[in-house]
Amino acid sequence: MTEIYLDIETQRLADEVPGGWENIRAFGLAVAVTWDAAGEFREWYETDAEGLIRALRGFERVVTFNGERFDLAVLSAYGDVRELRAKSFDVLQDLKRRLGFRVSLEHLAQATLGRKKTGSGLDAVMWWRSGDPALRRRVAEYCRMDVEILREIVSAGRRDGFVKVPAQGKILPVYVGWAV
Questions:
Q1: In this predicted structure, what is the pLDDT of residue 121?
Q2: Are 61 and 35 contacting, i.e. CB atoms less than 8 angstroms apart?
Q3: What pTM was estimated for this model as a whole?
């Protein structure tokens, strides 16, 4: 099965758009990063959004973390994403179904990989908004790091049959069936 990993950073925050979290499509695409088995990371900007949607359609699976609620909602402002929703594998949604609660990518990365993220979605919006080319580059690098972490988590889950999550002061294994 061909798959592509996706993460998106936005131009705006929930409290800056009418409807807030119920209007994610209004957040605006700042940068998206994808990775596929050809070993290619690729950056996509708002002007590339329609091309990104077309590229995602060329894969059998789109792997995200909170993509069903967030990334695909952001992209829906730029084109029809129904086909992408049908082929989505959202790691957060799968873990939430297994655990009964949400886990952050940060906590999942720390418990499973021993890695920390280098920022947050709020940081990314502020960096992007600055207009400073160096800070905008940092947003793209942060987004790429999230894709790298997601890839490593999925790889660990496939290799080991489980990932680790912090819960009630402990690190717990969560058994997964993430075959390709």
A1: 86
A2: no
A3: 0.94
